[in-house]
Specification:
Strand content: 5-15%
Largest sheet: 3 strands, antiparallel
Order of helices and strands: EHHEEHHEEHHEEHH
Number of domains: 1
Radius of gyration: 21 Å
Number of strands: 7
Oligomer: single chain
Distance between the termini: 89 Å
């Protein structure tokens, strides 16, 4: 069995991955709150933004954490198409869960369906990302730890969607995001505890891309996307603020008209 190191750079990758997951969750929850306050195409667009934020945040969290994953006796490469597919799956399945909540008629049923779908999407992304690993040897999993990681993902997703449906204040969303970031990180490391690797030493070159060739640049790019989109959403006015601004403008116009008379 190869020795597995889940944090080869100390606390750097666990902390960075947690921060990334929390930022993605904060942006996604904020967008979901905005979506539920609107209708029509505006609701759809906010939900799509939320899905891309949460899905991207989860994917980036996973692969930032994987930067610290080392196995004694073998290099690690990544199958590029499978790695990209894991990102697409994360965004698509999270989107299905958010749309179930955003357009569901029965709140409790929509919440449970959305949480289950989103949680399975998170878990699916994780294990699809793990399937993209290329190394000298074979990977096996402890079924009990895998089942626990999936359960953590479903519970975390359901709790996050409940928060999006229930809370509106920025402070509450921030707290919920930190909790969701911790839950997603816990799911990742629970899933990683299920991993066992049997190394087969070989001089043959591995297929796929190295971490620095592919995963690191993509993770940095997606992380930048999360930061920039977060800034945009934070600075854009809410529906309530636009309504208040419009009302203030109308009142100012009325006062001006009255003064002119």
């Amino acid at each position: 069995m190869g020795h597995l190191d889940h944090a080869a750079y100390g606390w750097l990758t666990p902390v960075l991955s947690y921060v990334t997951a929390s930022i993605g969750a904060a942006l996604g929850l904020r967008c979901t709150v905005r979506a539920l306050a609107t209708t029509g195409s505006s609701r759809r667009n906010w939900l799509l933004t939320a899905a891309s934020a949460i899905g991207t945040g989860i994917w980036t969290m996973h692969f930032v954490a994987m930067l610290g994953f080392h196995i004694t006796g073998t290099e690690i490469h990544y199958h590029v198409p499978l790695t990209v597919l894991s990102l697409v799956v994360a965004i698509a399945v999270v989107g299905c869960g958010l749309f179930a909540v955003g357009y569901g008629k029965r709140r409790r049923r929509s919440l449970l369906l959305g949480g289950l779908t989103t949680g399975l999407g998170v878990a699916g992304m994780h294990y699809l990302g793990m399937a993209a690993l290329r190394l000298h040897g074979s990977i096996s999993y402890d079924p009990a730890a895998v089942a626990l990681s999936v359960a953590v993902a479903v519970v975390a997703a359901t709790a996050a969607l409940w928060a999006a449906l229930t809370i509106e204040s920025p402070a509450a969303v921030a707290i919920a995001s930190l909790v969701m970031g911790a839950a997603v990180s816990s799911m990742h490391y629970t899933g990683m505890m299920a991993v066992a690797v049997r190394v087969t030493p070989s001089e043959q070159a591995l297929s796929g891309a190295t971490t620095m060739q592919f995963v690191f640049p993509l993770a940095v790019g997606l992380g930048s996307y999360l930061f920039l989109t977060s800034a945009f959403v934070a600075l854009s006015p809410t529906t309530r603020e636009r309504t208040a601004s419009g009302a203030a403008g109308d009142a100012a116009g009325t006062v001006s008209a009255a003064t002119a008379r």
